[in-house]
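Ops channel
N.P.: pipeline sanity check, posting one input/output pair.
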């Protein structure tokens, strides 16, 4: 879709935000599709999210992505909220509508599932129990997407048990909370393990989880993508499990956002993935 009358603008709001790889991703798509525009990192402090969002329309932005710490607080400033975002309780994408109103959606679950299928096309959510480590915003998006894909049992494990129990109560079946002390044993018959915490990210301690009882056919997934291979994924690969890092989630969640902003649905290509991986 051509936009000869304006320079296209979008960005990502976060605090901090300069580490984000989203500008590289979306600016690649601008160039690929011959669109005149740019995607910017927008450093917005927590108490500035409301004014920043209200400034999108007068500044000519088509919308923005949201990252930590704005995904939940931005809900209060939306004129319309996508049902999936409302279920998750967080927004990852804001679209400025033609009348200037703001529509919020959450593409994290879509990005997560598409990233898994890209790496493991034969994967099925109903292949067996899934263990999800963490009960924060990432876990909310991941568990709902897994449930929507037909997962029959999702074991939520969090160091703070009240958060795991709260998530299981809120979403209901197939989620159930498992005690932190039982995390190692919970892997015994699992078909998949997902780390939705920041543990294993650069500068963070590794996830405290032994894979000794995990079946060798299980898939091990991490939503972290810096580093490309977290200690969890390294251990899993060494023992013969298939692994998927979080880069696919980042790449694929950007596709519906770019489409909603600019009317073009971009692809995740080998060229794009290689370019992104080279910066990690």
């Amino acid at each position: 879709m051509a936009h000869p009358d304006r320079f296209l603008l979008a960005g990502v709001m976060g605090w901090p935000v300069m580490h984000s790889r989203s500008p590289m991703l979306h600016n690649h798509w601008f160039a690929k599709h011959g669109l005149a525009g740019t995607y910017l990192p927008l450093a917005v402090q927590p108490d500035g999210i409301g004014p920043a969002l209200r400034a999108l329309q007068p500044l000519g932005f088509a919308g923005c992505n949201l990252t930590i710490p704005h995904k939940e607080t931005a809900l209060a400033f939306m004129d319309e909220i996508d049902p999936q975002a409302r279920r998750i309780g967080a927004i990852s994408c804001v679209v400025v509508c033609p009348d200037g109103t703001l529509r919020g959606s959450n593409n994290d679950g879509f990005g997560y599932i598409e990233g898994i299928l890209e790496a493991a096309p034969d994967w099925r959510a109903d292949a067996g129990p899934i263990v999800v480590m963490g009960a924060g915003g990432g876990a909310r998006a991941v568990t709902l997407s897994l449930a929507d894909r037909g997962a029959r049992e999702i074991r939520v494990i969090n160091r703070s048990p009240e958060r795991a129990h709260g998530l299981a109560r809120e979403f209901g079946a197939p989620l159930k909370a498992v005690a932190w002390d039982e995390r190692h044993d919970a892997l015994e018959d699992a078909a998949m393990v997902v780390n939705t915490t920041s543990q294993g990210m650069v500068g963070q301690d590794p996830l405290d989880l032994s894979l000794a009882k995990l079946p060798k056919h299980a898939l091990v997934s991490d939503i972290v993508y810096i580093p490309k291979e977290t200690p969890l994924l390294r251990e899993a690969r060494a023992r013969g499990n298939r692994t998927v890092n979080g880069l696919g989630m980042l790449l694929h969640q950007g596709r519906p956002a770019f489409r909603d902003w600019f009317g073009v649905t971009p692809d995740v290509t080998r060229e794009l993935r290689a370019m992104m991986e080279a910066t990690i």
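N.P.: looks fine end to end. The domain at 8-106+250-277 is CATH 3.40.50.10860 (Rossmann fold).
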